[in-house]
Amino acid sequence: MKEHAAPEYWVLDGLEDTPQGTKARLERADGELVILPASVLPTHTREGDVLEVIPGPDGDVLRPARQETTRRREAAQERLNALNTADPAGEIDL
């Protein structure tokens, strides 16, 4: 029986306009950045979205991982809320 590897997720860190066209900066789980043409992104992808990397015979494909994106955003909001409630003023001073 074939074992299934854990899904690999990349996060869209940002988009950059370059002379060669718009480039997407994607952050891997190990922190390494991958730069790809923005045209390989799924439609309606925005910064902070999590994408699942699907290996295929013609190369990897990026697919929106909506549940993972929601899970990560909720976890980040919970961490921020915890930091804000720890401060008597209720806000973090930068």
From TrEMBL:
Composition bias type Basic and acidic residues, residue spans: 60-77
Region (Disordered), start-end ranges: 50-94
InterPro entries attached to this UniProt entry: DUF3006
Pfam families named among the record's database cross-references: DUF3006
Protein name per Swiss-Prot or TrEMBL: DUF3006 domain-containing protein
Lineage, uppermost ranks: Bacteria, Thermotogati, Deinococcota, Deinococci, Deinococcales
